Amino acid sequence: MTEEEQRLQKVSPKHRRFDLRGASLIIITVLVITLFTGGMAYSVQSLVTEAKEGVLVDGVREFRISVQQWYYEPAIIRVNPGDTIRFVVSSQDIRHGFSQNELGINLTVSPRKAVIHAVVVPSDMAEGTYTLYCSVFCGMGHPYLRGKMIVGAPTMFLGVRMEKVLPYFATSVMVGVFAIFIAKGRRRVR
User: Fold this and answer.
1) What is the pLDDT of residues 42-86, one digit of tens each?
2) Is the bond into 70 cis (omega within 30 degrees of 0)?
3) 52-153 topology per CATH
4) Total-model pTM
5) 76 with 54: CB under 8 angstroms?
6) Cα radius of gyration (the chain)
């Protein structure tokens, strides 16, 4: 064996160890970013749909809401202060909850049975976005079962509705974090 071959044989295992560290860092980073991005995308998916105004039936604004693992359909509703609203909520799979704190709503919805609940939106309720959420544990995606109730005019930033911009902003942040992790990991490997 020549001296050059012996030197290459000694260096090779060291480089393999560093390559393994670099590869494991990239794999771990990809897994973490995938989990965070997946969670964010799952939680903001309801923000990219249009708000439903409901149907006016005998002076009452009616919303037919379907619940299944793990989303509401429609995910966003729009009401005005002083409106009388009626929720007709039905589950398509298992038992779910339908809650809204500011209006004092907390319903349990069983599969294939509609629950009807009417409420008046207080005329002094502040304009803004309020959360609709599941109050009955319904599985792994339970924390992501959210909806929005917009009271009054939509939230605007520089003339653009926020629910249209947020998913793009969240994705950009995650791409930036991924790039930083990769850059720092490459520096440590070298």
Assistant:
1) 555 555 567 788 898 888 999 999 998 888 999 999 999 999 999
2) yes
3) Immunoglobulin-like (2.60.40)
4) 0.58
5) no
6) 25
